[in-house]
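Entry 14. Ran structure prediction on the chain below.
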Amino acid sequence: MNKTSDTALRGEIRRLARQSLRRHYWIFVVAALAAAILGTDYANTTQVFRIQRRIRTENTQPVQEIRPAMGAGGSADVTVFNDLINGDWQGIIDAVGYRLEVLQGKETYVGDVQLGHSRGVFASIVNEFESGALLLSLLTLIDTILGSRKLAVILLALLGFTIMALFWLLVGNVYRAVCCRLFLEGRIYEKIPASRFMFLYRVKKHTKAALSMALYTLLKYLWLLTIIGYPIKRYSYLLVPYLVAENPDLSAGEAVRLSSRMMKGHKWEAFLLELTLLPWTLLSIATGGLAGILFCNPYREAVLAEYSSRVRSQAKEQKVEGTNRLNDRYLFEAPAEAELESAYQDVAQREADGTDVSQARGGVWGWLESWFGIVPSVDEREKEYRTHMQADLKKNEYLDALAGKTYPTRLYPIKEVHKRKRTDNLGYMRHYSVAAVILLFFLFCMFGWFWEVTLHLIQTGEFANRGVLHGPWLPIYGSGGALILTLLYRLRRKAIAEFTAIIIVCGIVEYLTSWILEVLHDGAKWWDYTGYYLNLNGRICAEGLLVFGIGGMAFIYVLAPVIDNIIEQFSMKILVPVCAALLIVFGVDAVYSGIHPNQGKGVTESAADSSHLPG
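Output, structure tokens:
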């Protein structure tokens, strides 16, 4: 091949890579950034984070404040470890204790948001890490068990090395093949589902891929010691991650040998191609890694994926020994419509059949059903709807594959193992009857009351009727549960959006409730998060909202469907009187408590004595 055709080939590869990058920009950026964070490639990219962290530290953290626990500078944990190796145990114990006191007394504000360090789980975690107390505690524990401080340091060092090695072997090193898979699929298909990051787990080949990638990395480092041999072997092994990405069932030796055979006669070609990417690498370095994050790194990956596919095609045509093991045809070409319909026949049939049950009722009930998932009762129509939605959830992930928009996993030579979530069988995409919503509201109210009372009892050893009302219920929990069940009904298919919305809704409810109670009752506080990490005016904090988010997800996808199934066992003749009685008693309590709120020790106390979650 002459020089002109070589140049044209490189230009065509880059053009197709840019086309692929435009089509999948954000997921390619995320994939390449993850590689940088995990340390598999693009280490210079993370400079931008180190620069920003240094700037923030210099602008907000007085050096003299951290010096007693940090020694000459750097990470507290690293300094603790170094001083302990040198035998200065008492000195570092004193320094860590001083640093912990400084952190616990520090309250930093960013606008109205407080980065509290004195109370809460988040604050404790941050303090333990920043002060070096966590590492010191581990060393002290091991020292107590073994009776030897030097042996404790050695053992902890070995433990740390083992953890890092396992992480590299099972996560960081394997991710290189996962990343290659994503970019290869992006060449052909319109969409790349986030689930493709887990494809090695789904085919149960993660361990085998890890061993192949470990040998690949080991050989590269060994050849690096020879200096002269490394540039040659680097390109000999260039295709290993792509071969593992296509067929993770290849043994480590097979992948390395096959890459060497396929790259024979292509090493200089690959070098020249990478040389054309040098300006982008320099740009990434010059911008502290920012240009690498936003363009250079994903572009390089797209170029190499395009190049590897061309080398593979030539090797298959030339019948290079071992290429018969590369049998993932649809990773490199789109399947015919007939093949997709055959593989996804059940999905196509279900889509063709359709159903009218997804259409809402007319009138007010239709509006409530469509927007909030509320129906008057669980009738035969609703039961049919739930059956349909359960089937729809199972087939939904295949619709894009049937349309040829994503890689057809059913046509993959290695059968994927689909471990469906139990929540799919619970039928969380359901409508709830009015009676069910009312009962779920009260159940959540009572759960919140039980949680608060129990937590306070454990912390103080005293019983306190938590909450502003006098009955065994906390309406803020019930209101939050009812709102996320109904207001966020349309987000239920999208777990990430649902989780984010739950945190936002619960944050608004908790903040407004705190403010309204203080206004109505002369500044009395039923909870105060002052001192908690990331709190806003003491009314809400990151720790509490995270608990609400996790609890809300469990409520939406598991607890509410399970409880609703139990509620359905009772007739409306029983449910209606029970709901009416609860509403009457609750209403009376609310009116009475509005005039005479529940107050006193353990209920409305100072910030220093307040319980973890709102009352």
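Residues 337-373+380-420 form one domain. Will compare against last week's run tomorrow.
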